[in-house]
Design brief:
Blueprint: H1 3-8, E1 11-13, H2 14-21, H3 25-33, E2 40-41, E3 47-50, H4 51-56, E4 59-62, E5 65-68, H5 72-98, H6 107-121, H7 126-137, H8 148-151, H9 159-165, H10 168-176, H11 186-190, H12 212-227, H13 238-247, H14 255-264
Antiparallel strand pairs: 1-3, 2-3, 4-5
């Protein structure tokens, strides 16, 4: 519908309100649910918005143009609020996925916490930190295509089962490739099982050819795996976990990252 027509309407549905102020219908609903935008409800439960309520929020609606009267700080606050809600939704979905795995619920969220902490320690850019956090949350999403009996197996995997398990980074990359906000995380998801000595998978990348974020997630994931109670063993103590990680520094893990992690891990409430 042309905006010149919408501008004349006093009562709008969510789609019309969204079109009028150049946002998505979901953004309009988020404004309503958060109490920022008042709405009327039809007997069928649909939202109707008075044009005056949009103007009360700070949107200047005039013939031929629509502009936002919101301050930069207000817009940033609204963006961060929506982003946090988005992240929480992702975390809930990831926790449901984790329940299929032997490591258990919360694994991906904890890995994201450890990886984000490491990114802070390395003073990476805000964009890099966001990519690492999102990739860490979704690093095991490819396991959704792995059979339940393989994921939950208590004993050692057979060669065929292990070969199937090794496909999950590539599957994960394919799952997220069409999601705009995860596009920069694809490579980190694909390469989080590479090894510093080049003996990892799926591509056998070596050393600094492995993306930094993938090297961080690999270390964070191993720390959480060793610290987790599994059906066939108890969790390692923090000291035992650090000792195991040190053993494979330079082989499985980037030795520079291991040093930073080990030197600072006791300051974190990971255990």
């Amino acid at each position: 519908m042309k905006k010149s027509i919408l501008i004349q309407k006093e009562i709008l549905n969510t789609s019309e309100a969204a079109e009028l102020i150049n946002v998505t219908a979901q953004t309009i609903k988020n404004y309503i649910y958060s109490g920022k935008l008042k709405s009327l409800k039809t007997p069928g439960g649909h939202h109707r918005i008075r044009r005056s309520e949009l103007e009360a929020m700070g949107f200047s609606i005039q013939k031929g143009q629509v502009s936002s009267g919101l301050s930069r700080e207000d817009m940033l606050a609204q963006y961060n609020q929506l982003l946090e809600g988005y992240k929480k939704t992702i975390e809930i979905l990831i926790k449901a996925l984790d329940r299929r795995d032997i490591v258990g619920a919360g694994h991906s969220v904890r890995v994201a916490d450890y990886a984000s902490w490491m990114a802070d320690m390395l003073d990476l850019s805000l964009k890099e930190k966001e990519n690492i956090m999102m990739a860490a949350l979704f690093h095991d999403v490819g396991k959704v295509w792995i059979k339940e009996d393989i994921l939950s197996k208590n004993g050692k995997l057979t060669p065929d089962e292990f070969a199937m398990m090794q496909k999950h980074p590539e599957i994960g990359e394919k799952i997220v490739k069409d999601v705009d906000c995860l596009r920069s995380a694809q490579a980190l998801i694909r390469h989080h099982h590479e090894r510093f000595d080049g003996k990892g998978y799926p591509d056998g990348l070596r050393g600094e050819k492995i993306p930094m974020g993938a090297r961080i997630i690999s270390l964070a994931e191993t720390y959480d795996f060793l610290r987790s109670n599994l059906p066939f063993r108890h969790s390692f103590s923090p000291e035992e976990t650090v000792a195991e990680i040190k053993k494979v520094s330079g082989a499985q893990f980037d030795p520079g990252l291991v040093k930073i992690f080990v030197d600072n891990v006791e300051r974190r409430a990971f255990h």
